[in-house]
TrEMBL record:
Keywords: Amino-acid biosynthesis, Cytoplasm, Diaminopimelate biosynthesis, Lysine biosynthesis, NAD, NADP, Oxidoreductase
Domain (Dihydrodipicolinate reductase N-terminal) ranges: 5-127
Gene3D superfamilies the record matches: Dihydrodipicolinate Reductase, domain 2, NAD(P)-binding Rossmann-like Domain
Oligomer status and interactors: Homotetramer.
The protein's name: 4-hydroxy-tetrahydrodipicolinate reductase
Domain Dihydrodipicolinate reductase C-terminal: 130-266
Length: 271
C-alpha cells in the first residue's frame, strides 16, 4: 500500500519542525508538502533542512492549494486566521484536517464546524495522550464534587506563546464544566486584577504564567475548606503533541466527515 501523503502547515515553526522529524521516522506516512505564511523567510527552503534533517526535497511553499490536491491529510499548528482558511481548502479537497492551533475565537470555531460538514476535522487544544486522559479524570472528579470545591486551573508556557489561557487550560476547564453540568462561558474567571471581590462560588478560575522554555504545564486544583486535590500534567517534549496529531491523521482516513476530538481518537469520549 502506498504511503499516506501528509502536508504540514507552519512547517518552520516549533511544532511544524517536530512533525517533519516525526513523519520522517514513521513508516506508512510521507511528507508530501510543507506550508508557511506568505512572505515567511522559510518559503523556498528545503523542509527537511529547516527541521534539522538531511534535505528531503520537499520545498516550503506559501501556496497550499496545489499541495492539498495531492494529499490525504494536513496537520496544522499555525495561527487562527491560517487555520480557518486551511479548513475551507481541506473541506474543498475532502481531506483530513488535524488542527492543533489554539487561540481560536467563537467565530473561528463556527467556521471550522461548517468546514467539517465536508471533511474530517480532528481539533484539540492538546494532542497528547496524558492531557486527554487528565481531562477525562477531571470531568469525572468534577461530577463527584459540589460547589464547595473551588476549581482553579493554572498553566505555564514558554515566553513565545501568544494566546492565553492556553488551549489545554480551556479544554480542562470545559471538562470540569461538563462534569459539573454547567456552561463554562457563564462560569469562568479568566482574569483577576485589582479589587475583584471575593471568589464567585461555582466559577472556574484560570491563571496564566509565561517564562523561559517551558513546553507546557497544567494543574487543575479542587480546593475546599481544609483540603485540596491537585491533578497535574507536565509536557517535557513537543513530540507528545506531534505523536497525537499523527495518530489523529491516520485515525481520520476513511472516516465520515465530522468534527472530532482527541477523546474520539483515543477512545476516551465515553469515560
Ligand atoms: N494542540 C496541541 O497539542 C498544541 C498546540 N499548539 C499550538 O499550535 C500553534 C503553533 O505553535 P508553535 O509551533 O509553538 O508556534 P510557532 O510560532 O513556532 O509556529 C507556528 C508557525 O505557523 C506559521 N504560520 C503563520 N501563519 C501561517 C499561514 N497562513 N500559513 C502557514 N503557516 C503559517 C508561523 O509563521 P510566522 O512565525 O512567520 O508567523 C510559524 O512558523 C499555537 O497555536 C500553539 O498554541 C502547540 C503545541 C501543541
Ligand atoms: O503554544 C504551546 O506551546 C502549546 N500550546 C497548546 C496550548 O495552548 O495548550 C498545547 C501545549 O500546552 C503547548
Amino acid at each position: 500500500m502506498a504511503d499516506t501523503r501528509l502536508v504540514v502547515a507552519g512547517a518552520s515553526g516549533r511544532m511544524g519542525q517536530t512533525l517533519i522529524r516525526l513523519i520522517a521516522e514513521t513508516p506508512g506516512v510521507v511528507l508530501s508538502g510543507a506550508i508557511e505564511r506568505p512572505g515567511a523567510p522559510a518559503v523556498g527552503q528545503d523542509s527537511g533542512k529547516v527541521a534539522g534533517l538531511e534535505p528531503n526535497g520537499v520545498l516550503i511553499t506559501d501556496d497550499p492549494l496545489s499541495l492539498l490536491t495531492a494529499a490525504e491529510g494536513i496537520i496544522d499548528f499555525t495561527a487562527p486566521s491560517a487555520t480557518v482558511e486551511l479548513a475551507a481548502l481541506a473541506a474543498q479537497m475532502r481531506i483530513v484536517h488535524v488542527i492543533g492551533t489554539t487561540g481560536l475565537s467563537k467565530e473561528d470555531f463556527a467556521r471550522l464546524k461548517a468546514a467539517s460538514r465536508h471533511a474530517v476535522i480532528v481539533q484539540s487544544g492538546n494532542m497528547s495522550l496524558g492531557v486527554n486522559l487528565l481531562a477525562a479524570v477531571v470531568k469525572r472528579v468534577a461530577r463527584s464534587l459540589d460547589e464547595d470545591f473551588d476549581i482553579e486551573i493554572l498553566e505555564m508556557h514558554h515566553n513565545r506563546k501568544v494566546d492565553a489561557p492556553s488551549g489545554t487550560a480551556l479544554l480542562l476547564g470545559q471538562a470540569a464544566a461538563d462534569g459539573r453540568g454547567i456552561d463554562l462561558d457563564g462560569h469562568s474567571d479568566r482574569v483577576r486584577d485589582g479589587h475583584t471581590g471575593a471568589r464567585e462560588k461555582g466559577h472556574i478560575g484560570f491563571a496564566t504564567l509565561r517564562g523561559g522554555t517551558v513546553v507546557g504545564e497544567h494543574t487543575v486544583i479542587f480546593a475546599s475548606e481544609g483540603e485540596r486535590i491537585e491533578f497535574a500534567h507536565k509536557a517535557e517534549s513537543r513530540v507528545i503533541f506531534a505523536k497525537g496529531a499523527l495518530k489523529a491523521a491516520i485515525w481520520g482516513f476513511g472516516r465520515k466527515p465530522g468534527y472530532y476530538s482527541m477523546a474520539d481518537v483515543l477512545g476516551l469520549a465515553e469515560l
